Amino acid sequence: MSWKRIGTGTPRALNAKQQLYVSLYLETLNGTLAAEGAGYSKHSASDRSKDLQRYTRVREAIDKGLAEKERELKDKVVRTMEHAYAQATADIAELFDDEGNPLPLRKMPREARRAIHSVEVEFEDVTQEGGTVRRRPRLAKIKLHDKRASQELFAKYAGKLKDKVEMDATKSFAELVLAAQRKRERESTAEPQKPE
After folding, report:
1. Can you give the three-state secondary structure of 32-48, one letter per residue?
2. Are 50 and 98 within one domain?
3. Strand 116-127 and strand 133-144: pairing?
4. Which of 11, 28, 158, 169 is least enclosed, having the fewest CB within 10 Å?
């Protein structure tokens, strides 16, 4: 009769070398480099990486780490797109009061502040009661981000603008080249028309 050990409770935690491997793998996404960094020899690093990834605990830790990285990346993309949208739809009127003076930064709407690229501040001397002079900052110039670039970024993200050209591939490249050569030959042999 053979006796088998039946595991009870939660699986054991990763040992230090496995934790280091998982951490380095999540940084580099390269199993061999992660195994080398975790202390395995260069000669066996590739095999050790494959072995480590077969362990359920290691694989689960990697999957969990990758899922966390994906969540963080999605959050960054969402924040970036919110920022691009704010820049693309900014209304400059929200930066000024009714008399045309720039509002203090803290009084500007948050979405409008996101569109600001830079500000120039000037200081003016204000004489207070008692003859004391105090320097007071004042917004002198407000420069906004490039609205067109923000609109393009947002349109690309929304899938409305593409960087690549889509072509009909029903004709072969050779056919297109021959057609272009024939057209050039016809144009070069045709007599120029005389003005009437």
Report:
1. HHHHHHCCCCCCCHHHH
2. no
3. antiparallel
4. 169
Cα separation, 186 vs 183, whole angstroms: 5
Other CB atoms within a 10 A radius of the CB of residue 51 amount to 13
Quote the number of domains for the chain: 2
State pLDDT tens for residues 107-118.
989 888 888 888
* pLDDT at site 124: 83
Q: Is residue 73 part of a domain?
A: no
Question: Which residues, 6+ apart, have CB-to-CB distance to 96 below 8 Å?
Answer: 102, 103
Over residues 92-112, the mean pLDDT reads 88
Examine residue 49 and state whether it is found in any structural domain, yes or no: yes
Domain limits at 96? 88-151
Q: Which amino acid is at 164?
A: K
Six-digit token string for 75:
């959050």
Does any domain span residue 35?
yes
Model confidence at 4, pLDDT cuts 50, 70, 90, reads very low
| Amino acid at position 48, single letter | R
Burial 28-37, CB ≥16 within 10 A → b, else e: eeebbebbbb
- Per-residue pLDDT tens for 35-65? 999 999 999 999 999 999 999 999 999 999 9
Global pTM reads: 0.52
Specify whether 50 is located in the same domain as 94: no
180 found inside a domain: no
